[in-house]
Amino acid sequence: MTLITDSESLAAFCRRQEDTEFVTVDTEFLRDNSYWPKLCLVQIAGPEEAVAVDTLAEGLDIDPLVALLCDETILKVFHSGRQDLEIFYHLIGRLPAPIFDTQVAAMVCGFGDSVGYETLARQLAGARIDKASRFTDWSRRPLTERQIDYALADVTHLRKVYRKLKKRLGERADWLTEEMAVLTDPETYELRPEAAWQRLKTRSRDKRHLAVVRALAAWRESEAQARDLPRGRVLRDDQVLDIAAHRPKSAQDLARTRSLGRKFADSRQGQAVLKTIADALALPDEALPEPPPQRELPNGLGPLVDLLKVLLRAKCEEHDVALKLVASSSDLEQIAADDKAEVRALAGWRREIFGEDALALKHGRLALGARDNAVELVELEPEE
Fold first, then answer.
1. Cα separation of 258 and 262, whole Å?
2. Please, where are the H alpha helices in the chain?
3. Pairing of strands 22-30, 75-78
4. Cβ 114 vs Cβ 105: under 8 Å
5. Which of 58, 101, 138, 295 would suit a FRET pair with 364, their CA atoms being 20 to 30 Å apart?
6. How many whole angstroms separate alpha carbon 210 and alpha carbon 189?
7. Residue 10 exposure: Cα atoms within 13 Å on the Cβ side
8. HEC profile of 97-135
């Protein structure tokens, strides 16, 4: 087990992995005080060796690492890899490929929703992870032996976890491919300022208000990216919504916003906020954003939704798959209201294990009973 700090050693390690079937990958990074994550360490394990690559080492050429991550003959195995993949996407301009996420695979194999690495390492690899270094400062050098051991544990035990899950998947491999689609889509990692407003929670359906929220969120996102600051260090969510609600027209008005004060209002940022508001208010009606569609559950469907929840749990236990993977509460509400609802639970493998029975329950072709402390599905004879 090695800490790599020089280009020659990194290139040599990557060459030794050229013919391997897969490598396990993890990262350590900091993001507390920046918009963009600061990559501090990359851990990689092949079948025979594991290394931690010090990406902060002076003069380190990471081109061999990039080539390894992008080698499509070698599978890259992550656990809950979304943040790791985002880092690589913005660092090298593309996603590693192909990839396998053990958290997603574990959900397909019935380990529950968003199962943690420590749980899988314990259950599948018989390993216990020392959590003492979890919240360490990975940017400080030199790294301690304990830090390196902790970091490498995230990829060494992952090898056995991957092998066990791959074996368990069997015919469910196609299920996993479908679930991996989001992780392998570059759009998942695009951080477009114009879309930032969709993260904010507002109940208003006033289009002009939403236009101001959209404009302010886009300004904040661009400012945070340019200054490499967390969004909340530019403006907090509640401040964005408060400004949008009051629509200040002057620095004096802006200064009344909670926790901002006159200094911000008179600053370059404050003037930019005022211009952003004015521009949003001047938009023609056809340029205003549409409020998100509201889904109101028709009266009387609440008990049916509750029955569908019981059926979902029973079917997921029967097929040993995580509930979250099959259907959400919103999916169940939409199924209760519409047989042709455009939800994942009524398509593909989900329809086979749950969706068809959900529709049968809804239309009285299936009933739920109880026997021996378990839910039982009872097929009903169609009415003459």
1. 11
2. 7-16, 63-70, 82-92, 102-108, 117-125, 145-169, 173-179, 207-227, 231-234, 237-246, 251-254, 261-266, 268-281, 302-319, 323-326, 329-337, 348-350, 356-362
3. parallel
4. no
5. 295
6. 24
7. 23
8. CCEEEHHHHHHHCCCCCCCCHHHHHHHHHCCCCCHHHCC
Does position 21 have pLDDT exceeding 60, yes or no? Answer: yes
Q: How much is the pLDDT for 179?
A: 84
Q: What does the alpha-carbon distance between residue 88 and residue 78 come to, in Å, rounded to a whole number?
A: 12
Nearest by Cα to 24 from 92, 80, 97, 75: 75
Burial class (CB in 10 A: 0-12, 13-18, 19+), 336: buried
**Residue in the structure block whose two tokens are 């208000």:** 209
Q: How far is it, in rounded angstroms, from Cα 136 to Cα 138?
A: 6
What confidence tier does 134 reach under pLDDT thresholds 50, 70, 90? Answer: confident
Tokens 């380990």 locate to: 111
The CA distance from 143 to 244, in Å, is 46
Per-residue pLDDT tens over the stretch 205-217: 999 999 999 999 9
Task: Report which of 327, 325, 297 is spatially closest to residue 310, judged by C-alpha positions.
Answer: 327
Q: What is the pLDDT of residue 383?
A: 62
